[in-house]
C-alpha cells in the first residue's frame, strides 16, 4: 500500500505539499528561507522530496520525481543541510582514526541502546520502533543508489552486504520485512510510512542524510562512511536491544530483528571496513574527507535522535 502525503509541519512543508497535492506542473516555489536546517519543517519537506524517488505517494503523480523546479527547490534545502552538518562535525581526512573510534565503548555508556538495556520500558520501545520505521521499512534502499557510483572491489563487496540486507534473495528475510514483522508483533502498523505524521523531525533527518548521500554521486564517499559506521555500531547495539527486549518479554519477532543484526552486522562490519572502504580510499584517496563527513554526520544525527527521545521520556516520567 502506498502512503499518502503527510501533514505539513510549517511553511516550507506546507508549500511543498500544497504544490504536490494540486499537481501544478509549473510550481512557483519561491526560494526557501531556512533558519534551522534541522527544523522538523525543513526535514519533513526533504523527506517528502526524497520519497518521490522511493515509492512515492498515492496522491502524487510520478512525474514529480524529475520536476526541475522541485529539484532546484530541494537543492536549497540540501545545501543548507550539508553546510550545517559540516559546521557541527570535526572533519579532516583521518579515516582510520575516525573508524577506530567507533569501536570504542563509551565509558559513560550513553545512547539509545544503553538506555533501553538499562531501563527502557515497553512504551518507550514502541516509540522507538515508530521512529525507526522511517528507515527500517526501507532498509538498505538509500544505500542501493550508490551501487552504480562505485567500481571494482568496493562495488562488489558493497553489493554483497546489500544482498544480505535484502534477504539473500528471500523476500521474507529482507530486513525491511523482518522489521515489518516486528511492528506487527508489537501491535503497530507495518504499513510503509504509516507513522510519518507521528515521528519527530530527528527521526527524519538521519534518513534524509542517507537519501542525500545515496542520490548524489559526489557524496558516495560519505555513503560508504555512513554505511560502514552503521555496521560497526549496529552489532553491539543490537545485542543490547536483544537484552532489553528479552527483559521486557517482547514477542519473538521483535527479538529476531535485532538478533539477526547481531550476527549479520558483525560480518558486514568486516566486509565494509576491509573490502569496501579500504578499496574505495585506495582507488579514490580524495574521498577520505567525505568518508569522515559521512561517519561523523551519521553519528551526530543518531545521537540527536536518541537525546530527543530520552529527554522526552524523562520529562514525561517526571511530570
Ligand atoms: Fe540490516
Ligand atoms: Fe547490516
What distinguishing features does this structure have?
about 325 residues; globular; binds fe (ii) ion; mainly alpha; Heme Oxygenase, Chain A; 2 domains; 13 helices
Question: How does this structure look, described?
Answer:
- There is one protein chain.
- The chain folds into two domains: 77 residues, no CATH class; 226 residues, Heme Oxygenase, Chain A (Up-down Bundle).
- It is mainly α.
- 66% of the residues lie in helices and 0% in strands.
- The mean pLDDT is 95.
- The protein is built from 13 helices and no strands.
- The structure holds fe (ii) ion (2 copies).
- The site of one fe (ii) ion has 5 residues, from α12.
Summarize the structure.
This protein is mainly α and 319 residues long. Helix content is 66%, strand content 0%.
Amino acid at each position: 500500500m502506498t502512503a499518502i502525503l503527510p501533514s505539513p509541519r510549517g511553511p516550507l512543508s506546507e508549500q511543498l505539499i500544497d504544490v504536490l497535492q494540486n499537481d501544478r506542473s509549473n510550481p512557483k516555489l519561491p526560494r526557501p528561507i531556512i533558519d534551522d536546517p534541522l527544523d522538523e519543517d525543513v526535514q519533513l519537506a526533504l523527506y517528502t522530496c526524497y520519497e518521490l524517488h522511493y515509492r512515492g505517494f498515492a496522491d502524487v503523480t510520478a512525474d514529480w520525481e524529475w520536476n526541475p523546479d522541485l529539484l532546484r527547490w530541494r537543492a536549497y534545502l540540501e545545501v543548507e543541510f550539508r553546510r550545517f552538518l559540516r559546521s557541527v562535525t570535526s572533519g579532516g581526512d583521518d579515516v582510520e582514526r575516525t573508524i577506530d573510534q567507533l569501536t570504542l565503548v563509551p565509558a559513560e555508556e550513553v545512547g539509545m541502546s544503553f538506555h533501553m538495556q538499562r531501563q527502557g520500558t515497553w512504551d518507550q520501545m514502541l516509540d522507538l520502533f515508530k521512529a525507526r520505521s522511517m528507515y527500517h521499512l526501507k532498509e538498505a534502499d538509500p544505500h542501493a543508489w550508490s551501487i552504480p557510483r562505485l567500481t571494482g572491489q568496493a562495488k562488489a563487496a558493497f553489493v554483497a552486504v546489500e544482498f544480505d540486507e535484502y534477504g539473500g534473495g528471500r523476500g521474507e528475510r529482507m530486513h525491511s520485512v523482518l522489521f515489518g514483522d516486528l511492528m506487527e508483533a508489537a501491535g503497530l502498523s507495518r504499513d510503509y510510512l504509516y507513522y510519518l505524521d507521528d515521528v519527530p523531525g530527528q527521526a527524519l533527518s538521519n534518513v534524509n542524510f542517507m537519501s542525500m548521500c545515496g542520490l548524489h554521486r559526489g557524496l558516495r564517499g560519505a555513503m560508504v562512511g555512513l554505511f560502514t559506521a552503521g555496521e560497526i555500531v549496529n552489532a553491539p547495539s543490537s545485542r543490547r536491544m536483544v537484552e532489553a527486549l528479552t527483559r521486557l518479554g517482547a514477542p519473538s519477532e521483535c527479538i529476531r530483528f535485532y538478533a539477526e543484526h547481531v550476527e549479520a552486522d558483525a560480518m558486514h562490519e568486516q566486509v565494509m571496513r576491509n573490502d569496501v572502504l579500504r578499496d574505495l580510499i585506495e582507488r579514490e584517496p580524495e574521498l577520505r574527507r567525505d568518508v569522515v563527513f559521512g561517519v561523523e554526520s551519521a553519528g551526530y544525527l543518531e545521537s540527536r535522535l536518541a537525546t530527543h527521545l530520552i529527554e522526552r521520556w524523562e520529562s514525561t516520567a517526571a511530570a
